[in-house]
Structures are given as structure tokens and as C-alpha cells.
Amino acid sequence: MKNKSIAFTIALIFFTVSKARSQDVLFTQWEHIPLLYNPALTGNFEGMIRCRGAYRNQWASVLKENAYQTSTASAEYKLAANNYREINMGAMAMLDKAGDLDFRNKSFTISTSVIQPLGHPDSWHHLLAAGFNLGWTFSQIDLENAQWPGGMPPQDVNERTSYPDVSAGLLWQYASNSKFSFNLGAAMHHLNRPNVSFSDSSVYKLNNRFNLHGRIEIPLAQKISLIPSFLFSSQGPSEKLLLGFHSRWYPKSNNPSYMQIGFWAKTAKNQYGKGKPIYAATATVELKSLLIGFSFEHFQAIKSNAYEFFIGYTFKANDTKVSKQNN
Prior knowledge:
By secondary structure, this protein is mainly beta. Helices cover 12% and strands 54% of the residues. The chain has four helices and 15 strands. The protein has helices at 2-22, 34-37, 60-63, 317-326; strands at 49-58, 68-81, 86-98, 103-118, 126-140, 160-175, 181-189, 209-219, 224-235, 238-249, 258-270, 273-274, 278-287, 290-299, 304-315. A 14-stranded antiparallel barrel has the order 1-2-3-4-5-6-7-8-9-10-11-13-14-15. The protein is globular, with a radius of gyration of 22 Å.
């Protein structure tokens, strides 16, 4: 009976940890963290260098200090660009923390993409992009907070593990001479299906994650645009859909600075059925090269909330030239 109790406790702990890590984090304002969702989006911006930072806090009113918290930081650089093709590089670091076992994922990823315009150089409107990333994830749990029969964990359980991770993606984009544009992209993550088990005697393969995303900007007036977008994510038995829109205002029609608000709905289903929709509101301001964003969502089922904060800066071509001259 004692051996059965130990086995059940171990299985319960690793089932809980496996469920926590088998589904990747989903930010509401996913477009501000492009490297996390599709490596083909690497370098897809106007400028030379783009930096982004994001933080998400979820269910703090219920879990208190054990709330789900995710932080990311990324940078992208246009390595080579000419009239026919762009080659881009990017790097991203992410820290994901959750639960009373202090479960943590620390990941570091290097991305690259090739952007190929289509058509005649005088009238390029379409482009195709292909991206690839290679990363490494370090995971850990705090076994001191676990309740073990007999007071000691089994010998083959480790507090830390690590594994490589490989992803690839594609993107198709169209942009007119006005602000009308759209894109459609797809990516497959965890192509190598790494073993994420903390036990030396067991194997738990991380499920592939498939992302499909799209976005369209529709000018409604000289300074106002409507931007619907979606993100569909499928990983193992879980499926998530994020659907919504931004309403964007450009203070000056010939200036890329803007202010926008958005409204979103999230739906999810797994092997246990379909959950209730979750609704979110977002606000973003981009002033010249500085981006600041915020989102709020409410989980009615557990009477709790989630918050996201974003900040970023894009160095234009003129900025980098001035910096080199000053040096």
C-alpha cells in the first residue's frame, strides 16, 4: 500500500507539472512578441533594429505569490538588406513561472528569417518570408515544497532539466501604397518534440504547437484604421483561438505614430471540453520609435484577472547612421 501511495503521489506531481508545461503561454497582444509565435516575423518592421519587452501576470487574486508570470525580452536586427532580399537575425529570452512548486522555464532563442519581395522592383506589394529558430530551455521545480511519503523524493527525480527546441514558419504579406495591408502566417514549434521530463526513468515528449495567424489593416478615413486579426494555436489536445480588432488613430496622416484600443475574445478547448470565452481590452501607443502597450482580461469562471505590459523601441536607419558617425 505504501509503494502505491508513493507512486500515486509522484504521478500526480508530474501530471500537474506536465500539464503546466505542455501548453505554451498565449499573450493577448501577441503581435508585440513576434518571435514567440512565428520566426518568419523576424525583421518584419520598418527600421534597422527592434527591441521588445513584455510581462504577463495571471490569476494573482487567486494564486497570490504563486500566480502565473511570464516575462520576455527580444531584439531583431536586419543583417543584410538590398533591393531584392532581406536577411534578419533575432534573439529572445523568456522566463515563465507558475505554481507553489515554483515551476520555472527559462528559454533562450536565436531566430533568422529571409524576406523575399515578389514582382517588379518598381511595384513591390507582396512578399514571402521564411524563418527558423533554435533555442534552449532550462526548467526547474522546487521539490522542498512537495509532500513526499516518507519525507524524501525518489532518487530518479531531478529539480532541473534542459532541452533544445526547434521551430520554423512562413509568412505572406501584402501592402498597398495607402495604409491597406494584410498578412497570413503559419509556424510549427517544438519540431524536435523534446523530452521535458524531470525523471530519469520516464519520458514526456512536448507536443508540437501549430500557429496560424492573420491580420488586415483597413483604412476607414484619412487618419483612422480598423485592424482585425486572429491567432489560432493547436498543441496536442488543446486548441485556442484569439479573435479581435484594433481601432487605430494616426494623429498625422504622414507619420507612423499612432494610438489604438482593441477588444478581444479567447476561446479554448481540450480533452475535457470547451471552456467559457474570455474577453480582453487592450491599449497601445506608438510615438515615433517608442511603443507602450497594456491589456486586461477577466476570467469569469474563477473571478480573477490577467494583465499584460509591453514596451519597445525601434531604431530607424537614420538613427543607426548617426550612432555610427558619433562613435
